[in-house]
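Record 1 of the preview.
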Amino acid sequence: MNKIKSRTDLDVLKKDGQEQIDQKACRLLVCSGTGCVASGSEKVYNKLCELAKDHPEVDIVFSAEEAHGAEGGCKGCAGASDADSKKSVSIKKSGCHGFCEIGPLVRVEPQGLMYTKVTEDDCETIINETVLGGEIVHELLYHEGDREYLGEDDIPFFQGQTRLVLKRCGHIDAEDIHEYIAAGGYQSLAKALFEMKPDDVVNEIYESNLRGRGGGGFRAGTKWQQVASQEEKERYVVCNGDEGDPGAFMDCAVMEGIPHQMIEGMLIAAYAVQAHEGYIYVRAEYPLAVKRLKLAIAQAEEMGLLGDNILGTGFSFHLHINRGAGAFVCGEGSALTASIEGKRGMPRVKPPRTVNKGLFAKPTVLNNVETYANVPMIIENGAHWYRSIGPENSPGTKTFSLSGTIKNTGLIEVPMGTKLGDVIFGIGGGIKNDQEFKAVQLGGPSGGCLTSENLDLSLDFDSLKKTGAIIGSGGMVVMDQHTCMVEVARFFMNFTQRESCGKCVPCREGTTRMLEILQRIVEGKGEEEDLDKLLILADMISSTALCGLGKSAPLPVVSTIKAFRDEYMEHIVDKKCRAKVCDKLKRYVIDADKCKGCSRCAKNCPVGAISGEIKSPFTIDNTKCVRCGVCMDHCSFDAIYVE
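->
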């Protein structure tokens, strides 16, 4: 790769790259986000490449990583066809398209087709009919009822979205800096470096009212102002990619699919506060994100967009990756910086804040992945444009991950202020198997449960705060009537208690006591005063815990008691779980009318809890029963049920 030494060089590369993309007769973008990879998209990509090589009439361009490193001398993304008579085709690995429910996905350009649930067996058909024949493979298109949808532009899942941060995700090669530049990448950095002073950049971000997308919703521009105003001139820019919430995968998709967009945001932040070193703290459990970030950094360094004298301006910025070891608490700012320094990841008492004494006790800008990914488009379009999207106090868009018992699982992006019901029943398609909606857990273990009464709630920082919930990083776990809310509270409290760093007593001991009470309740050993004890403990923890993670730990318990107190009382008083989820409260019963007296259940019961005479109805002694369900598995007459 040739170094980009000026803004003119960048503009030329953008123009050339776009022309080369436009010249391709066909582009296949195979979704290579973690979700589709888990569904087999790597095999699909390899099979498409293998089949395409068998056609000499096709001039193939592969994904950047293979193209630049393949022994066979495969053409890279910037290569051109040697013979004008050949049909120029590119097969690329893209980032996450978002509609994970119907993956693996293959996007076909320039037609804009979206092929769904693609397998290796479909690859030959795609090559022969679409690549060579220019025909649509109708059976691979998305269908809903009798209707057929060609691509993202008309699929209902995408219709209700406003994809700004994710605009390029799924549309460019995730592993190639050339395609990012061709799509306008690093133009915002050039604008900042050549047209704006550092203070101008800080003010633009402040005026945009961009609020941190990592959970707290703190104004990003305020952080930048505070760091820029410090007397200490050695400063750092840090990205929090430690996405630890169960059910959250938004930051992962950005790091895997559009890593350069996040890096460009960090570069702009570094210029704004005049920092020359930066760190990306990313979960080791995200190996694909780590791989693509390393590749993106190496490419940016090779092209002169990272390192010394960027674009010939004299500004220098070096970026490093630090992999976390899986501690949830390292998502907290001071614990994260301590981990980068090689110390145990534990929060510290504040003040001083990170903006005063952060990484290596120096002023530090610390934002999360999605926050930095918003920065380039704010610099490109201006603060006024950004504030025109969503509510005034929470402008812009927000990415959410939809999971749980919802029809359309995946990654979405909507304007702040979108109604909760529009997300669940519009974009999400409603509840699987047309079951009844019960609740949605928003914000992970630090968030709260919202119910059908909240479906008209506006999804923005301030509106959610009034309900006792938070947006958090954006994980949205949807639940139907078969979900036990007491068990949900116990699950999240178990997670929080295990992930507590143990530094402060309220969190260390308080979450342990709360978990013990919840465990008793789901085992049928709860007492009526337990609910008051839980609320007293919750108030104590939220008032006195050292860090934000500790303070928000009781939210799932408090919100479920508030909305589903009757369900708690059923567990405590009636020793009953209406969702039939809590094992200790299950009571296995043999229907005498259906039982044929074959004795299979008794023979297979591991604890001898079933007795009776052959050809007469058997019975279960629930004082001996361990509720393993083996009897139900072996009954051929559906005579055993859970009461």
